[in-house]
Write a structure and sequence with these properties.
36% of the residues lie in helices and 16% in strands. By secondary structure, the protein is of the alpha/beta class.
Length: 205
Amino acid sequence: MKKICLLIVAFCLVLLTGCAPQNDASQSSGSSGAYAVVTDDRGRVVTLARKPQRVVVLSTSLLNFAAAVDGDLAGRATVKAEDASLPEKYQHVPDVGPVYNVSLEKVLACQPDLVIASADHHEKLAAQLEESHIPVLVLKTKTYDDVKRNLEVIGKVYGKEEAAKAKEDELDQAVHAVTDAVPAQGKRVAILHVTPSSVSAELPS
């Protein structure tokens, strides 16, 4: 059953692309009059004085959160056809390089007022951007809870909280459709990861 739940999480991530621990990111409207105050996955508080108009997203998985709420982008990471399909509205958005090798110069050329970066790949780049006084949200996408929390964060960034909640409900329904179909007495499943040099087994965590 635990293995099936892991597969369900993977299924939901695929749904979102269309194509760790729980996320600590949270958001609120500041009493100071700021548009939004968000704590990202570095534990850093990011204050957005006004609604971002030129958002740059540095990974495919994070791009899909923007797509889920129909958010506009000023720049995006390279999306390879074999990895995911690129939504039509992002076809002509400037490319800032692949997720593993984003170009700082190309990001700056987009004149962003917010950059959304991956916790797995962009912490050093985030520090460089912040030195240029560009706000950066660093997010992770490893669990289903991360997916739902990131949807809430991106919905807040774009002022599209209702669209984000609708996507969350859609994903929950997909999860329930799978879990409701699982027999009460499930089969025991082993998931093996095999490379030319090693064999490892997936653990419940």
